[in-house]
Write a structure and sequence with these properties.
Layout lengths: L1 E6 L7 H13 L4 E5 L12 E3 L27 E4 L5 E4 L2 H10 L4 E6 L1 H12 L4 E5 L15 H22 L2 E6 L6 H9 L4 E3 L7 H13 L5 E6 L26 H13 L3 E5 L11 H19 L5 E6 L2 E6 H4 L11 H8 L7
Parallel strand pairs: 1-2, 1-6, 6-7, 7-12, 8-10, 8-11, 9-10
Antiparallel strand pairs: 2-3, 4-5, 12-13
Helix pairs in contact: 1-8, 4-5, 6-7
The chain binds 6-O-phosphono-beta-D-fructofuranose.
Length: 359
């Protein structure tokens, strides 16, 4: 048996722990393991395919990033090909990928990725490739799994930032608006905001009214709390409005969003007259060592993916349905972004403890 592993889309802390657990589980069964570099680029002849040995996955479980590298521009069904005039045109090059996989003797593939990678996996499955998926995203927006690895690390990074913001905000009687990741779902903002006792949390699931945000800040002022912490998910938008877009994306990339914190900070300063600063935590949330929780979850996913291959569960994704790791068909997960339920107990408790959602 020869399996291959690929990591696609934005990286998330814990990827290396999945790679290690999957590789060791497979090698200990007597299987061979290949690592496809940079998403599927290694299978498109545009990067390497390497052999993963016990030695090559030694000492990586605690490391952020991915030893296989990643890309969010590697969809083989829309893969850029250089034209005679030097420009690039996206083409369906999935047949090349299938041929290369056959040539390399790959019997099965573990694809570690988010929504984009799951969609590619589904399409490759329908072309006959044997694939098992491992969900990955710091945003925690993949359905069918309670959580994804990387999310806990991102929440802790954001939490550390909130703790630091509190002291400087209080020293200067300022409003601090911090933007965290979460293009479609506000889980990072919600969890870090509640754990970090923010005053306002703005998420895409609850469109905000800037007037209500300012009401909360003024109410705190009136009560002698002269500073406020506002945590905003990058995909948050005002009632009746749309999320903020960040310039041009590279060809083949999803629309980049962000910049909402700066816009909100300007509005707060204008409306309340309070000095307001903004910051974007950005890719710091994707970097660094995975937390213990993420390392364990990633390791469990890696081991479960190899068991799923042994059980020939093609087209399935491993998932956490506490307390168990299960497998579910990719079709049941695709196209359905997991979002914060505005009636969830975390939201209820946040409101009950005085946090405003700007609604
Ligand atoms: O993984 C998802 C995500 O973290 C989004 O929240 C964010 O919009 C996106 O990645 C940014 O990714 P990149 O800058 O790598 O394109």
């Amino acid at each position: 048996m020869r399996i291959a592993i690929s990591t696609g889309g934005g990286d998330a802390p814990g990827l290396n722990a999945v790679i290690r657990a999957a590789a060791l589980s497979a090698i200990n069964r007597g299987w061979e393991v290949l690592g496809i570099k940079r998403g599927f680029a290694g299978l498109m002849g545009e990067d390497e395919v390497i052999t993963l040995t016990k030695d090559s996955v030694r000492g990586i479980a605690h490391m952020g990033g991915t030893i296989l590298r990643s890309t969010n521009r590697g969809n083989p069904f829309f893969y850029p090909r250089k034209q005679a005039d030097g420009t690039f045109k996206e083409e369906d090059r999935s047949d090349e990928l299938m041929e290369n996989a056959t040539r390399l003797g790959i019997d099965a593939l573990i694809s570690i990725g988010g929504d984009g990678s799951l969609d590619i996996a589904r399409r490759l499955c329908s072309k006959g490739m044997k694939i098992v998926c491992v969900p990955k995203t710091i945003d925690n927006d993949v359905s069918g799994t309670v959580t994804t690895f990387g999310f806990d690390t991102a929440v802790n990074t954001a939490l550390d930032a909130i703790d630091r913001l509190h002291t400087t905000a209080e020293s200067h009687d300022r409003v601090m608006v911090m933007e965290v990741m979460g293009r479609d779902a506000g889980f990072i903002a919600l969890h870090a905001g509640v754990a970090g006792t923010a005053d306002v949390i703005l998420i895409p699931e609850i469109p905000y009214d800037i007037g209500k945000v300012c009401e909360k800040i003024r109410a705190r002022d009136a009560a002698g709390r002269l500073f406020s912490i506002v945590i905003v998910a990058e995909g948050a938008f005002p009632r009746g409005g749309a999320s903020h877009t960040l310039g041009e994306s590279m060809p083949g990339q999803a629309r980049r969003i962000g910049g909402v914190a700066d816009a909100i900070a300007r509005e707060i300063q204008t409306i309340t007259g309070k000095e307001t600063r903004s910051l974007v935590l950005g890719h710091l949330q994707r970097g660094g060592m995975p937390t213990g929780y993420d390392r364990l979850l990633a390791t469990r996913f890696g081991g479960a993916a190899v068991r799923a291959i042994a059980d020939e569960k093609w087209g399935q994704m491993v998932a956490l349905q506490s307390p168990h790791i299960v497998t579910i068909p990719i079709d049941e997960v695709l196209g359905e972004v997991k979002r914060v339920d505005p009636t969830h107990d975390v939201v209820q408790t946040a409101r009950a403890t005085g946090i405003s959602f700007g609604d």
